[in-house]
Task: structure prediction
Amino acid sequence: MQVTSPQWLLVHYQRDDSAYADWSLHAWGDIDPGAVTGFPDGHPFAGEDAYGRFAWVRLAEDAREVGFLVAHRDGTKDIAEDRFVDPGVTPEIWLRAGDPDIALTREHEEDTTAGYAVIHFRRPDGDYAGWGAHAWEGTPAKPRWGTPTAPARFDSFGAVFEVPVRDDAVGVRFVLHNGDRKDLPDDQRLDLTVSREVWLISGEPAPVRPDLGTLGPELDPARALAVFVDRTTIALPAALAGLAASFTLVASADGSLRRDGDELTGEHETLPLVPRPGGLFQAQSRKFPHLRAYRAFAVPELADAGLGHVLRGQLLVTGRDHDGRVVALTAVQLPGVLDDLYADASDADLGPLRVWAPTARSVALELTRVPGSDEFRILPMERDAATGIWSIDAKQKWLGRYYRYRVEVWHPAAQRIITTLVTDPYSLSLSIDSTHSQLVDLDDPALQPPGWDTLVKPAPVAPARALVAEAHVRDFSISDTTVPEEHRGTFLAFTDEDTAGMRHLRMLADAGLTHLHLLPAFDFATVPDSRAAQGVPRCDLSAFGPDSPEQQAAVMAVADTDGFNWGYDPLHYTAPEGSFASEPHGSARILEFRRMVAALNAAGLRVVMDVVYNHTMADGLAPLSVLDRIVPGYYHRLLDDGTVAESTCCSNTAPEHMMMGRLVVDSILTWARDYKVDGFRFDLMGHHPRFNILAVKAALGPDIYLYGEGWNFGEVAYDARFAQATQVNMAGTGVGTFDDRLRDAARGGAAHGNDPGTRGFATGLGSDTPLHVHDRIKVGLSGALASYRFVTHTGAPQCGSQIDYNGSPSGYTASPAECVTYVDAHDNEILYDAMAFKLPHDLPMDERARMQLLALSLVILGQGVGFFALGSERLRSKSLDRNSYNSGDWFNQIRWDSATGNGFGTGLPPAPDNEERWPWAQPLLADPSLIPAAATIDATAARFAELLSIHRSTPVFGLPTADEVERRLTFPLGGPGETPGVIVMCLDGTGLDPRWSTVVTVFNATATVAVEKVPELAGLPLTLHPSLEASVDPLLRTATADPSTGTLTVPPRSVAVYVAALPATMNT
Result:
């Protein structure tokens, strides 16, 4: 593992005339065979620095002598004599034109990189289009993968990236990438204590300069390869464990430990580690399955106090060979041992002014009336040795005051003991922009709307009967002119009853909508709280053309400072977002959030919160880091080398750790108990352990529904670290997961496909629909049941679990309540935009509207929880934006005034996530026929309400159990002879529905009238469902049923529901 010799010889060359173009470095001797050239050819002086130019030559392994000449292309030598250097001693030299002397060192150069880490990147093919630097650890802001740092300039070496770094940064980690293509598979790190500038060649792990190759990961104290599993055991990677004859745990209480050759300096104590031949104990392997191949070392037994003392300083594991040389040196990951030693903290009091900081040397409370002022008190807090909790008694007179914690702690990001200033991770209220926490009492009547204690909520809804609309607090009302201006984009907009948005929500609720799902409304990091501080586009966006790039350019210019963001950037999990309050400074956010909940309940809707416990906005010492400033290295999931995992595109948290898991449960309970929230949607739930989600469920009780994204990816994929809360794993728990199987079959393609024109059942395949796509949709209509059995396109009966979905089962749930059926959400294109890409371009608007409703009918009329993006029932568009998380109000607003259109044709969508699709998008956006008329928008909403009323009035849409679904649901025309693009679904209502014995739904996705003869229905008195007999769509009213033959006739691109009344003797 350890690199002992340099990989490059670096030769600097200075010419007074700066004429370097025709000069090169000709080298021979111990160089890589691929670097050998014939004279006078050589290696160009392509690198630039303050000295002049430099060239580089790849060395042979253990190179000891290299000869060289500086030669002109015409054969002229700069110095006639051959010169030689031992790169094992001096891998970097400096030359002056015409001077035979070789300088082995340089005088200190003035640092011109203050505030930046400078990354020079050379690609031999010269193609830098799309390449950027994704950097973190020492950066002032959390990076986003999709918007890396672009080259600041180019020089003769290649691209130059200037990455801002904090003043206290000791290193910066980075990946050079082009989209999802990385230059190297592993992250790279620049040690800022060595250099603030690095030169890299594409595909080469070792920098050309500075020479960092002598320090491999096994000798890097900034990396944490050792894992303190529990109080008895430290685990080491097998490769690391094989390097040394003996290992020692070294602890430094004052953080002064340093390596000087084979000696350790600074105050420290050592504990011998004893190899355990059998490896980890079985219980340890079960708890940490990703460590099963590690080598186990026993830790000397320590009393609680002694071990606690060791954990509050700097910890390293050193390995020595038989000659006593240090061959391994690494930091230690602590979460396992902290959970073991401080297990009592799992149920200890964490009320006001109590913070878990077991590794801190001291914690103090900074208390003030005015955040940011010079008037504050610093009060010491007391540590409980059994729990690691620091506390101070909160006084009643402190209510309303602001505070922070001062935590003195060893921090690996600084490589020393520092004092961090940090807000409370359990904050309930905050100052403007969340700089300080605020002490509040959630039971204070002043923070409760009238009638809060006796609030009458809509009756609990069985999950399989739930219909959920997804909305964002800001875009719900930001452009609604019927809302008072000061309320637009805030919680209070939901309390204004006589507004367009609230009238629409009440209409949907009256028709059958049961829940409103709110995108993140907790405190997030990416929007200035104050309206006055929020940027706005500096032009009239409506003045530009429907396919113009100008709107997105103006929006993107202020995207990071404007008032809009989806909010998946958690800062404080248990405080309402300040930018959604009328007064972001202080506790108004609490009262106004509660007023919103009460108003939505009064409108007949239960409230769901979108929660994002899988990651934080930042870690380490970044300004927006909270948890990692208190217990460094604990709350976030660490990779094998101790870096924070970022598979979520932010700093992954670790709910498998005791106190992060507890934070999740405590926070959810606060929202449910103190804010009366009725359900929770977990972002990237598959990154949570199954046991963590089940702990939340157990704490909440049966009336609060939980669902989430059960995706399987990242460092936790395939249960690598724990049994995940993924789709398959959550079967049988009653917790819902989103069904991407039906989504992809209905829409076409996949969520992250490259061709937006790929069609699905409901987006234009029509009579060309492959029958295996029918099978996936049928599984979805059953509630994605693994056990549901039906005749597939092969003619053979199969269960949902046997229907393939890209190598996974299409059916995976044990109950329809565990399936959240959807065809659109905030992610990816909203339904109208997806269809704009996919449907035939000349398709009339009324036909497009029917296709939109057909797609949505799969959501409303299937088993399980129905879910849709608010506005899709009104043909809402985001002007083809596939990822509008930061696209401002312009692209995200819901246009409640139908006369202003649906949002389509408001400019090309923002370039960062959409530019590659502009060639498809531009002609569509320029087509005025793709903007629906007001009458079409309103009729579509009314037609959608018909679907809701069918669901509400018909109990068979929402069967509670798998047994009920299997007994009542059939697809009578299934098999190889089924009409492509037409699905006939039958539901038996006997004994369940007081009116109808049979309910038949026909989904006709074809461009022609569907005539389907179902022999099993012959003799039944089928008629159109009462909600459709007077449908606002006159074409739909032409749907008929012939009871004598069981023949159903359904107009093109439509869904029709038929019912057969119970015999009179059964209806009494």
